[in-house]
Every structure is written in C-alpha cells, then in structure tokens.
Amino acid sequence: MSRLSEKERFASLEQEAINSMPYLGSDEKNLNNKEPIILNAISGNVSNKASLSQDELALQVKEVRPWIHFVAGGLGGMVGAIATCPFDVVKTRLQSDVYRISYNQTIKSNNAIIKGAQHFKETFGILGNVYKVEGVRSLFKGLGPNLVGVIPARSINFFTYGLTKQFLSKNFNQNNEATWIHLVSAACAGITTSTATNPIWLIKTRLQLDKSKSGEAKQYKNSWDCLVKVVKNEGVGALYKGLTASYLGSCEGVIHWVLYEQMKSVLKKKSIQNSQDPNYVRSSWDDFNEWAARSGAAGCAKFCASMISYPHEVVRTRMRQAPMENGKLKYKGVFQSFGLIVKEEGLASMYGGLTPHLMRTVPNSIIMFGTWEILIRFLSDNF
C-alpha cells in the first residue's frame, strides 16, 4: 500500500514538473525573452520554439482579441485622416470633371519627368489657391464626415481582417499564415467595410465638391443638410451610388494587405535571425527600427496598390458626384463610366488627382499602421 502511494506521489510530482516547464527561466537570459518549452506527456519529447525554422516562426499567427483590432484600427485611421485631409480635398477636386477643367489649364510637357514635376507643382498650387481663396478651413472641408467614415471604416476593416485571418489560420492552416489567407481576409474586410460606410463617403464627396458660385449660396450647409437633401431629392438608393466601384476598389485593399503581410514577414524573419545570435543584445532602438520598418512597409505597399487600382477612384468620384446631362444621369454604372471618361477625356484622365492621392494615402498608411501597431501592443499588454 505504501509502495502504491509512492508511485502516485511520484506521478503527481512528474505532472507538476511538466506543467511548470513552460514558465521556467534561465540565469543566462532574461525571462521575458525565454521561449516556452513544451513537453509532450505521452511521448516524452521536448520541443522549443527555437527548434522551429525561421520561416515557421515568422508564419505563426499571434492571437489578438478582436476588440483590440477594432479600437486600434479606428484610432489609427483617425490620426492618419486628420494629418492628410488637405491632400484628400485636392485629390477629390482633381478627380471631378467640374474642377478638372479649371485646374488643368497648364500645357503639359511630353517628357515624363517634366510632366511629373508639373503635376507636383499643380498639386501644391491648388493647395495654395484653396487656402488663399477659400480659407484654411476649406483645406479640411469634409473632415467631419471623413472622420465619421474613417473611424468606423478602419475599425470594421481591421476587425474583420484580423478576425478572419485568425479564424482561417486556426481552422484551416495549423495556426500559420499564408498568402491565400491574406487574400480572403482582405476581400472580406473590403466588402464589409464598403457596404457599411458608402453613404458616409458619398456625403463627404458631395461636400468637397460643393463650391459656391458668385452671388449664390452653397448647395449644402453641413453633413446633415447634405444627407437630408440627397435622400429627399434622389432617394435612399442614392446613398449607395458608387458602391459597385467601391467593391471593385476592394482590390486595392487586397493588394495592400497582401504586400504588407509579405514585407512584414521578411522583416520578422530578419528579427528572428538577429535574436538567435548569442552575442545579440536587444535594445529599445531595435524595437523602434522594426516598428519604423513595418510602418514604412505599409506605405510602400499602399503606393504599389494605388498605382495598380487608382482608376476606380475616379469612376467612384464621378458616380457619387452624379452630374446630369440632358436631364439624365451622365454616369450610370462602373463600366459605362469607364468607357465614357476614356472616350471624352482620354486614358490619362483615369489618373487625375493621382499625385495628391499618393501624397495622402502613402503617409496616411504609414501613420495609420504605425499607430495601429503601437496600440495593438499597448492594449494587448495592459488589457
């Protein structure tokens, strides 16, 4: 009987040792940097994250609570939108046919470099002109509905993307990331976001294009007045003008997320490689450099995605603008609008406002993703 008790006690001690192993530290390394050891109680095998390859470590999905993605995404989007709002006003005006005629009066050079320089000069010229003629507040015209749209849009986008990625990775890919997971997650996030926020973007566009004529008052007093007049005069369905183009524009979000994830994976592999060096001592400067590199990767990915998918932005703006021709809507659908714009204005018009768009979206992405990364870490560690 006493022998049996000894066996039971030994088994109990063995189980306690197994359970405590993941939390044991070492005098040689800081406990916070110590990778947990996992013992398989059945086979007796011992494994450590250090035994995994760099690729396997980089592909592992770190689980983050969904509400953290929601809050961090919304706040990141808000900071980026405020910082880059003036360029958003210029971009929207250059996309519009009403402003395009009055602004694009300079004869463009055939030289690509000179033409690009003229485009930059034109962009800053419009910023200066808006400031002188309409005042500094006009540089932030539409910021109210923009923030009302950006905060929920970014919250929904980051929340849907993060939740979908975690679900697919956990249930279909052994908790590892993959390009197809990024594609599906980004597509789901884009479609969900576009459907939920299209009315807000339509109001923002109408307000930015509402320019008072001499002796006449502006058409819309504020965001609420714009919403009421659109619904009253055009119907509730008018709030979803340009939605098809927005769905098409989800391609930009997909490209952006996929490129960003690929770049981030490369940076993560490099960080893991450095940490495996026995002489490597991590510092706060290393943390800052990695954060800056990931933020820069977001900007680079946005630049590439914008260059590929920008024409849909012009089509979407024209459809939301809703100009009339012979008593009928001039732009009725995505493909009809594409064809009509190219026919009347040339293929180059599909890239109207590209310079201010890039000058807005690239730094916006850097600021937004940088803020998102900081908040993800802060909220995960403290809540």
UniProtKB/TrEMBL annotation:
Catalyses: 5-methyl-UTP(out) + UTP(in) = 5-methyl-UTP(in) + UTP(out)
Q: Where in the cell is it found?
A: Mitochondrion inner membrane
Single GO MF annotation: pyrimidine nucleotide transmembrane transporter activity
Record keywords: Mitochondrion included?
A: yes
Identify the stretches annotated as Solcar repeats: 64-167, 177-266, 289-378
**Keyword Translocase listed:** no
| UniProt keyword terms in alphabetical order | Membrane, Mitochondrion, Mitochondrion inner membrane, Repeat, Transmembrane, Transmembrane helix, Transport
Q: Name one Pfam family in it.
A: Mito_carr
Q: Which GO BP terms sit in this record? A: pyrimidine nucleotide import into mitochondrion
| Topology with respect to the bilayer | Multi-pass membrane protein
Query: What PROSITE patterns is this protein classified in?
Result: SOLCAR
Which residue windows are transmembrane per the record?
A: none
- Gene3D superfamilies (alphabetical): Mitochondrial carrier domain
Q: What is its main location?
A: mitochondrion
Similarity-based family = Belongs to the mitochondrial carrier (TC 2.A.29) family.
The name under which this protein is listed is Rim2 protein
Q: Which species is listed as the source?
A: Saccharomycopsis crataegensis
Query: Upper lineage ranks?
Result: Eukaryota, Fungi, Dikarya, Ascomycota, Saccharomycotina
